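User: I'll paste a sequence; please echo it back and then give the predicted structure.

Assistant: Echoing your sequence first, then the prediction.
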Amino acid sequence: MSRRPAKGEYIETDTGNKVARKAILVGTQNIMLGGKTVIQSEVMIRGDLVRTAPSSSTGGTAPASTTAVAIGRYCFLSRGVLLRPPGRLYKGDFTYMPLRMGDHVFVGQGSVVQAASIGNHVWIGQGCAINEFAIIKDYVKILDGTIVPSNMVIPSFSIVAGQPGRVVGEIPEGGHDEFELRDLYKTVGNNPQTPIS
């Protein structure tokens, strides 16, 4: 009698994404992962909330764009994160707009993200709320517990904190290396690699 090897905690895709078996991805056909992204357990990504547009032939609504959530390369979604596309009234109908996330984005434990777009090299702390249609540019650090108001635009190289969030500082020169997530990616998965010291 043969025994199957135990299944790992993560499912690893051809493009190097590591998705926890206990993550909840709803509407997977509308979720795009760029590759080398880590999705930990208890993460929920709402790909079922897609943009709809009036259909002329049926009088109903039909999907206008198939992507609800697009995530770049080397992103890290910590335990308990919720990614949800922002929604609003558009031409009299409530619809959802895509949530776009760049490369090297870290989202801390228990944070809720409903932004319109998040740039590259962004660090979002634990317990943050990034409200609807916020735009976060490149190289931004959002400290733990921050609530970013709806429609806020955060400029590049900013440090944001508070409830409501506001810019409290800027990323120092040479401080860009801390946004690199390649090494963190290697420490997660069924066969984690520990850094050699």
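The two ends are 43 Å apart (CA to CA). The first helix runs from residue 182 to 186.
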